[in-house]
Design brief:
Two copies of one chain form a homodimer. Chain A is α/β, with parallel strands linked by helices. Helices cover 38% and strands 19% of the residues of chain A. Chain A has a six-stranded antiparallel β-sheet. At the A-B interface, α1, α2, α5, α6 and α7 of A face α1, α2, α5, α6 and α7 of B.
Amino acid sequence: MSHEPLATTVADRWTATRGPLFTDMYELTMAQVYVTQGISEQRAHFDYFFRSTPDYGTHQAGFGVFAGLDPFLSWVNNLEITAAHIEALAAMTAPTGTPVFGTQFLDWLATPSRFDDIEIRSIAEGRVVHPHVPIVTVTGPLAVCQLLETSLLNHFNYPTLIATKAARVVQSARGGSVLEFGMRRGPSTGVNEGIRAALIGGCVSTSNVEAAIALGKQPIGTHAHALVQAYMALGDGEIGAFRAMAATAPDECILLVDTVNTLDSGVPNAITVFDELRAAGHEPVGVRLDSGDLAYLAVQAAQLLDAAGYPDASIVLSSDLDELNIWQILTQIADYAELLGIDAVSVSKRLVYGVGTRLITSHGSGALNGVYKLVGIENRDGDWTPAIKISEDPGKVPLPGRKAVWRLYDQRGAAVVDLIGLADEEPLADEVTVVHHPSHDGINQVIRRADISHIELLHDTVFSEDIDATSTPTIDELAERCRVDVDRLDIGVRRLVNPHRYHVSLTSKLYELRKTLVADAQV
Amino acid sequence: MSHEPLATTVADRWTATRGPLFTDMYELTMAQVYVTQGISEQRAHFDYFFRSTPDYGTHQAGFGVFAGLDPFLSWVNNLEITAAHIEALAAMTAPTGTPVFGTQFLDWLATPSRFDDIEIRSIAEGRVVHPHVPIVTVTGPLAVCQLLETSLLNHFNYPTLIATKAARVVQSARGGSVLEFGMRRGPSTGVNEGIRAALIGGCVSTSNVEAAIALGKQPIGTHAHALVQAYMALGDGEIGAFRAMAATAPDECILLVDTVNTLDSGVPNAITVFDELRAAGHEPVGVRLDSGDLAYLAVQAAQLLDAAGYPDASIVLSSDLDELNIWQILTQIADYAELLGIDAVSVSKRLVYGVGTRLITSHGSGALNGVYKLVGIENRDGDWTPAIKISEDPGKVPLPGRKAVWRLYDQRGAAVVDLIGLADEEPLADEVTVVHHPSHDGINQVIRRADISHIELLHDTVFSEDIDATSTPTIDELAERCRVDVDRLDIGVRRLVNPHRYHVSLTSKLYELRKTLVADAQV
């Protein structure tokens, strides 16, 4: 079955973005079941969490960085089902010709303020997060909570994946600036959300002009090979292109030096133009290398620039960079500098990294396995009943009920455990507490109260009837949250390859509740 | 440097999508150089092409499917630089405080119809495409062509990647329907473009309601584990959930049977409810399996459904499917059916595939390496000069000049060669023609005119002052183009693993031109 698109003009002919029907069909199907069967208003409780941090094949993330909350809250705050939406749904028919959606459900859906009666609690955007921990919880009428599922997952999974990758790339750069360059090969309009996440993870800015403006940042960039090619074709050569750049942007002059030959042509021509700039009272910014052996060329270019009197000129590197490539480049520079008898730090401190495709696509692990699971429901007597799914894989049985998460810091101030318990528990009430592995039965850990310097409750209410959602953090504040949290991780957890496992544990009460429910369901 | 975002209200606080500044900063920088240096209006010629088909690690694509053209043309047709855009650009400053963009450039940019004076030629959207072949060419003022670069790449690379993956998945399903299910883990708003591409590649519809409506399709879906969990928590069990589904959608009843135990609980309960449905005059549609050994469970479920009198009930499979997993499932079903002495085709013909994450992220190869390169420029005398980039990798030297592409079909009607030549050449003028490998010097091929049944010129003009852009194909027409083209490929080129290489060749004139230009540039 198909019917006319909602939008048919040229301008609007491809308008799908993130409206109220940006969700999976089955959410509407299920909501209709709940409405027509009279259980749509039962209060329910759903958790958003992921089951494992990204595994990039040869390397793995030891932690995640949560992103996407603010755009999601903006979406929830602006949900409006219009007559056009209802009309489109009403036009859908089964192969037998009967309407897919009945009047009872469509009237329910069209009710104003349908989405207002929910409470969303969340770990703050930009914070470090770990597997199994409920990051966001939604409580409200069953059918409304259900309808939110797919859009919520869409708003959180990809941004969290990219913020996580960005935090790793930034860490590998060891203080060098990382620029986001990914829009040309990234996922269509999804690059916008990817860029926002990359900035939360620590990129200093992006090349995408529109996204940068929307985020309150200044976009960054140099020039392409095309500029040099154009001047070469017009007979003015590489140096003609460099002079044109310098004339147009004398105070921001970064020259791409690898169109012809980096060391024989590009860098010498750049130095000639830098000398002309300096003579005219301007200080050049640097050069960019986009191909070849970047470590070797960076050392060679640094030596040429030093000898010419430009020890502060930046060297921007780009070309399929990611956390491993940057790590490798810095290692090779250190080795090569030792061979040459020069100071490696004088080279690496001037490096800037333009990171594109591999960041915006999370190279090696292109999707986060975040899920949104029903974990509790108010039964017909008004009592809360935990909900579980019996799966063949014990690690996939969700944690039942309303829960709290506490982050425990040791005496060094390092975050060492995320402890998940029932909402009404008091954490670490005793001097010694036994806690449990979230997915492997029988693996326990002992926590001594004396070893813990601080207990932090991780969730805040971010959406409810009482919350004014207009105060939101800036992108720089979100990035700062991420930076602080990453710094509080053990260095072993931050390792790029084979990281030490951060402890996520269950309290005995939660652990026993899940065990009982699984046993009951299997009877 | 940063400044206030353009949009500051809650509703609009994250508005970056694909406006006229959806481009890289350096395109604006270069355009300003061209404008201020007086060469912005020189006619230039850029080619869009990719260098290799996706390599998924253990398997490789033998062809690509071009997607993204219609949304790109819509974007070009609606480019409008507003006062707010100019204001945002004017506010950007260098660290020294001088404006990044001067009045001369901003006035040029703000000129109405600035983007009208270009010609875009393209291979039709949905067609099969190959490496090195110019898929889209843009001719126009140098600065305007340059400004289009990043958005053009963003519009083409990801959709082409996903259409290619979808065509492979559809092929692996051997006639079984493939449904697009990827929005929950896909790249934020980018899933919309991914879905459109997946449908071009042959998916019959998508779970995303909004995208389906925008594309004139009916969205599809079943239900989630949450529905079963909710009824279990309310005391009505799995069968209570199934009865609720059947009552609400009696003519479209597909039941998810793996929440408790697929063969002991899910399928028997589904059959009970199917019997009740049939007694009430409705025919059930099928069941869905979302976990476990899908091949084994599909055979077992098929036998149970057959025995109960439902030989036509569909079995929808989902759970990290891609082309290899589907191929494996069908192979295992064949093996298992032989073991049981039953007919494998009776099982496989009822299968439907819900393909999500691995399609929408192009699992194994998350980005297409498409580029947009300056290949010719009108010099100051009004003559066209080919432009090249001398790179360390000979395969990366672009094909110079204005070109034509001919697709050659053999006497079976199979497409066998894409031949790239200069625009004014006559292809295969002689009985025997020697053609050249596009990136490896000295590898030649001989084409006999007698072996060729049809020569197809691949490009059409899709944007120019004379073109009315309102007539555009429907998504079904695009999918049909793809299907026809895939069918015309040699079966070896269609292999999922280690495909036979499709021939892309250069005419001798083009080959010699590039050789001469490279030699000249290296003097």
